[in-house]
Amino acid sequence: MDFSRIYDSIPYILEGIPVMFQVVLVSALFGITLGVVVATFKIVPNRLVNFIGHAYTAVFRGTPLILQLAIIHFGLPQLTGYITTPYQSAVIAFSLNSAAYISEIIRAGIQAVDKGQWEASDALGVPYVKQLRSIILPQAFKTSYRPSSTR
Q1: In degrees rounded to 5, what are phi and psi of residue 13?
Q2: Which of 1, 8, 62, 103 supports an S-S bond with 35, CB 3.0-4.6 Å?
Q3: Which of 147, 129, 149 is nearest to 137 (CA)?
Q4: Could you report how far apart the first and last alpha carbons of the chain are, in Å?
Q5: Per residue in 76-108, pLDDT tens?
């Protein structure tokens, strides 16, 4: 392999590494937050909300990320009139895309929580949102993000 062709580009590559880490960190934070919301949409008994969650996941998992980036960077200004910077476009696209994948992980974790936990919180009269926030989601996160060597 001949790396002499990229020798002149090395300073630009090194300059972009901190920006890449910043995009990844910000996108991950937004993606996890939105992923939790979408995962809860998928398990709610309301059919419309459930459909929205499944449609969101199908669209963002079913289209290539490069297409999502292009639509957000070039299409969003056409629809809204707001011109996004490349950084903003990248954060938006990566956040929306990662939220779709994270929502599936969290949904599986929620469904892995024992049915008795739901029934016990219902018996205690805990409201649905508080059940999710205080009882179910902490257990779902523990199940979803446990290292595979301990499963």
Answers
A1: -65, -45
A2: 103
A3: 129
A4: 41
A5: 999 999 999 999 999 999 999 999 999 999 999
Q: With H, G, I as helix, E, B as strand and everything else as coil, classify residue 125.
A: coil
Question: What's the pLDDT score for residue 146?
Answer: 73
- Give the pLDDT confidence of 96-145 residue by residue, as tens digits: 999 999 999 999 999 999 999 989 999 999 998 898 889 999 998 888 87
CB 53 within 8 A of CB 38: yes
Whole-model pTM?
Answer: 0.82
Identify the residue whose tokens are 């024992």. 114
Cβ atoms within 10 A of the Cβ of 86, count?
11
50 phi and psi, to 5 degrees? -60, -45
The residue type of 60 is F
The amino acid sitting at 137 is L
How far apart are alpha carbons 50 and 55 in whole angstroms? 9
Neighbours of 40 (CB within 10 A): 21
Domain ranges for the chain: 3-103, 113-151
Task: Give the domain 3-103 fold.
Answer: MetI-like fold (1.10.3720)
